[in-house]
Amino acid sequence: MQVEDLVRQMRRSHLIAVIRALSSVEAQAKAERALAAGVEVLEIAWTTPNSDDVIRSLQQEAAIVGAGTVLTAEAAERAINAGAEFLFAPNFSREVLALTQSRQVVYIPGVLTPRDVADAIAAGLTLLKLFPAASGGISHFKALREPFPGLEWIPTGGVTWDTIDQWLDHGAVGVGMGSALFDHADLAGAVNHLRNARQ
């Protein structure tokens, strides 16, 4: 998968389900619920026990599956070997970047400050994760985007159903949503409404 492929998918579905759980069984159940609701991109947090097994188990599903909270090259290697099509992280790591480049896997590091963004740009990255998005909110996102044109953004961390439209209206190609995603009583209806409304 190339960056352009993931961006194209984000512009269509706008949503990444961030799966973080205390067990692989719980993670699998969350992933299946998200898939049944129509979510097409899943991020399995590496902090989840046996997350590589969860990623492997989802390979036959009609979804794009990646790994999140990937902090080290060793974790990145394991995630890629399990079949992860992209890697998310809360920070930028040159070691992880080098590995993903050699394996041709999309790497999306987390950024929060202008220095973070500048470092990512210098490394040749164009798709970034604003994290934690809720810390600065929409105003911080707007201020950060203006001096760095030409980037694609996926805010993650504190995004809710009440704020998702604001992030998208202000230039995000998609958002990552974790616990708030599953709080919706009609998850399938919410996912379908989001996709249709944005189109």
From TrEMBL:
One of its GO terms (molecular function) is lyase activity. InterPro entries: Aldlse_KDPG_KHG, Aldolase_TIM, KDPG/KHG_AS_2. Pfam families: Aldolase. Keywords: Carbohydrate metabolism, Lyase. Pathway: Carbohydrate acid metabolism. Homotrimer. PANTHER family: 2-DEHYDRO-3-DEOXY-6-PHOSPHOGALACTONATE ALDOLASE-RELATED, 2-KETO-3-DEOXY-6-PHOSPHOGLUCONATE ALDOLASE. Belongs to the KHG/KDPG aldolase family. This is 2-dehydro-3-deoxyphosphogluconate aldolase.
